[in-house]
Design goal:
14 helices, Dihydrodipicolinate Reductase, domain 2, alpha/beta, binds 6-O-phosphono-beta-D-glucopyranose, globular, 16 strands, single chain, six-stranded parallel beta sheet
């Protein structure tokens, strides 16, 4: 379907008093508006239990924009025009009366402007409320306006295992078609992640090398310097595997490993990503130690200051076995990737915040520079997702001088240097795509279920009381020492980003 640009729409945010609305959603909507990319006319209706008036809501959102938006309010006038489109309807999402009030507000808004009644509902609430909201959207008729589209955006976690993900998908499907459901994975909205697809599929030179004949291994690192902050209670139930690996890192793997989709549209892209998921070798519950490793941060240092260990964080059990670090070794069993290991690792309280994908190529088959004193490092392509978005290709070069010495040199592309601007926030792109009806960068139901079923054996093994506890690592380090031994078993080493 072509994008439905420049049609009016109303966005209803459930959970509008929460952190996500303040830190990400409204700042992203503001930046889109300020950059003149948000279709108009639009209305944003916040909804939550807190009994605040619309003016108070606008003031809070102005503060949120000041604190978190990429684009600052250029003038009071522009902000006032944006704020005039913000309103607030208080209520309990479990109370049917809220939906009657929302219906009145929506009808007023939609009646006052020409064009169809397009509605986007954002679930920024705890996931335990999703089924209640979906049931009420269906029962109240809010999801079926006349002459317009209805879409919902659902935040992760989409379930906590395969069975709960299936149950959630069927609840959503009871009120809406799959093409109305947008499961957000904000990593897919990151500018460099999209750039990865452009790199692969808009350039001739990489694709011939993008396979087992030339690639020796792939490493995907998503490292965070922060700890669990205020989210201890949530994280206790999640852990790194559920919080990051099941979604963000597996999505990155799929984009690296997938075959070229016929076009960059939702169905072909989702289909190709699903083929990768089906090709990943199922994880053998009897050999989890060879495939997966978990760690947990102890006390240490972050930014030069002492920080507590995970077990001392608020909301965390003093004997918690939740992993704050996870590493996986995956194999994609297909013609393109047979035998190429994919190493994935993610963790909190690591040495620095950095996300990157490193493609390491084979060594040259024969070294003619036999008089070069040191060997040559294999070529490496590193796609830096954040920060310092960009990419670097390492090639061997002759170092200056009479001797034939070889050394690695990097060919760099830095987003900020070339385009002279910070890339847009992931939520900007993804919100706009949902308004335009483009779900290419969202997660489809079958992908989510497949990701849970893939990780099931690891989750089950780690949940057993008899399983060894996570390996401790010092906050501010690169993770547990055992992670080095884990990768060294194949003769490799983690890249130091
Ligand atoms: C979220 C996780 O999905 O991603 C958080 O729930 C994590 O625990 C965050 O901190 C990382 O996102 P980003 O964009 O800061 O890398």
């Amino acid at each position: 379907m072509p994008p439905s640009t420049d049609e009016p729409f109303t966005l209803v945010i459930f959970g509008a008093s929460g952190d996500l609305t303040r830190r990400k959603l409204v700042p992203a909507l503001w930046s889109l508006y300020a950059g003149r990319t948000l279709p108009e006319p639009f209305t944003i209706i916040g909804s939550a239990r807190s009994e605040v008036g619309p003016d108070e809501f606008r003031l809070r959102m102005r503060d949120a924009v000041r604190e978190f938006a990429r684009t600052q309010p250029p003038s009071a006038n522009v902000w006032d025009r944006f704020a005039a489109s913000l309103s607030y309807v208080p209520g309990d999402p479990a109370d049917p009366a809220l939906y009657t009030r929302l219906e009145h507000t929506l009808k007023d808004v939609e009646g006052a402007r020409p064009g169809p009644a397009n509605r986007l509902f954002y679930f920024a609430t705890p996931p335990s409320l999703y089924d209640t909201i979906v049931a009420n959207l269906g029962a109240s008729g809010l999801a079926n306006p006349r002459g317009g589209w209805t879409r919902i955006i659902v935040e992760k976690p989409f379930g906590h295992d395969y069975a709960s993900a299936r149950a959630l998908n069927s609840q959503l499907a009871s009120a809406l078609r799959e093409d109305q459901i947008y499961r957000i994975d904000h990593y897919l909205g990151k500018e460099t992640v999209q750039n990865l697809l452009v790199l692969r599929f808009a350039n001739e030179i990489f694709e011939p090398l993008w396979n087992r004949s030339h690639v020796a291994e792939v490493q995907i690192t998503v490292a965070e310097a922060l700890g669990v902050e205020t989210r201890g209670a949530y994280y206790e139930e999640a852990g790194a595997l559920r919080d990051m690996m099941q979604n963000h890192l597996l999505q990155l793997l799929c984009l690296i490993a997938m075959e070229p989709p016929v076009t960059f549209d939702a169905a072909p892209v989702h289909d190709e990503k699903n083929k990768v998921m089906h090709a990943i070798r199922p994880l053998d519950a009897r050999k989890i130690d060879e495939i997966a490793l978990r760690g947990q941060y102890g006390p240490g240092f972050a930014g030069g200051k002492p920080v507590p260990g995970y077990r001392q964080e608020k909301g965390v059990a003093p004997d918690s076995r939740t992993e704050t670090y996870a590493a996986l070794r995956l194999t994609v069993d297909n013609w393109r990737w047979a035998g190429v290991p994919f190493y994935l690792r993610t963790g909190k309280r690591l040495a620095k915040r950095v996300s990157e994908i490193a493609i390491r190529f084979h060594r040259t088959p024969h070294m003619i520079f036999h008089r070069a004193p040191s060997g040559v490092e294999p070529n490496e392509l590193v796609i830096r997702i954040q920060p310092d978005e960009g990419m670097a290709l390492t090639v061997a070069a002759k170092t200056p001088g009479p001797d034939l010495k070889l050394g690695p040199v990097g060919l760099h592309f830095r987003y900020g240097e070339v385009f002279g601007a910070e890339p847009p926030e992931a939520y900007e792109r993804l919100l706009l795509d949902a308004v335009h009806g483009d779900s290419t960068l969202y997660a489809r139901a079958d992908w989510v279920e497949k990701a849970w079923s893939l990780l099931g054996p690891v989750l089950d093994t780690w949940a057993q009381a008899s399983a060894p506890p996570p390996h401790l690592y010092e906050a501010g380090s690169w993770g547990p020492a055992e992670a080095d031994a884990f990768i060294a078993r194949d003769g490799g080493a983690w890249r130091q980003p």
